[in-house]
Amino acid sequence: MAVSDETRLSVLIVNVNPGSEQEFLTLAARLNATLERREYCVQAQAIRDERVRSCFYLVWQWISPGTASQSDDDGEVRELTDGLRRVGLVTQAVDGARLRKPGEGDRDRGVAVQWDRRGGTDRRVKRSGTGPEDRRLTERRLAPRRRGEPAADLVGAARRARDQAEARFSHFKVGAALETTEGAIVTGCNIENATYGLTICAERVAMFKALSEGHRDFARIAIVADTESPTPPCGACRQILWEFGGNLEVRLASLTAETGAYYLEDLLPLPFDARLLKP
User: Which residues pair with 187 in a beta bridge?
Assistant: First the structure.
């Protein structure tokens, strides 16, 4: 596809809930027909992933970035897309139609710089070959995200992990629970050191622990601290989470309630990663 066309392509990944396939197909057909009928899209189609039968890709080629924006304000389109979210987990994989230069347009999530939303290391390493490693990365990129357990369970795991924190100097205990795309939960807590510089945060403990156990694909992380206001990860943790987890969902909580939910690209909008390294 020509470069000019790449900026007009959007792809949604929909992991359909068990028993909801027919409802999804009906909604997708209506939505695609509406996008074409109202001349927002040149072409709109739904494609099933033959490896994972409950996973579908909605591929929309917009007439222009302007028609993509117009569709956002269309009540019928919004109603149909909301319906998709009721029958499955919807992930934006490509949003080229809304590409902006830094500083242009709104500062909504992902608008200032629209990164490719592939997860993990593969979203940052450019490859052009067809060797085993390239095929492995392609398979990871296309793997659907698992719906996982309710967020409250992930937060609960982070609260329990916090109890194990070694915070004898700051007395500021933090717990983290990292969920893989397969639904496994790996926890971590902050561990302080008398030299301070060797202290490691809960988020990095969880990520390093998960990597050491063989996990490579992650969906979200919960972080718990004894504070009323949200306690987001520090800069070092954001870098590590981005490097190995991609655009994770980040859920923040206190000992009694959730205090915020973000995506990592919101917390680290202009990341340094392997794309910036010269070959």
Answer: 177
CB-based contacts of 50, cutoff 8 Å, min separation 6: none
CA-angle at 16, arms to 51 and 11, nearest 5°: 75
Mean pLDDT over 63-87 rounds to 88
Strand partners, 188: 176
Predicted model pTM: 0.51
Per-residue pLDDT tens over the stretch 107-156: 333 322 233 333 333 333 333 344 433 333 333 333 334 444 455 589 99
CA separation for the pair 62, 227 (Å, rounded): 45
Q: Radius of gyration over alpha carbons of the chain, in Å?
A: 20
- Catalogue the active-site residues: 203
Residues 197 and 204 sit within 8 Å (Cβ to Cβ) = no
Of the pLDDT bands very low, low, confident and very high (cuts 50, 70, 90), residue 25 is very high
Map out the domains of the chain with their CATH numbers.
3-99 (3.30.70.100), 151-276 (3.40.140.10)
- Give SS3 for 123: helix
Cβ(40)–Cβ(68) under 8 Å? yes
Nearest alpha-carbon partner for 220 in 179, 188, 185, 261: 179
The beta strands (E) that lie in 52-202 are given as 55-62, 88-95, 174-180, 185-189
Q: How far is CA 210 from CA 15, 161, 178, 185, 217, in A?
A: 24, 14, 8, 9, 10
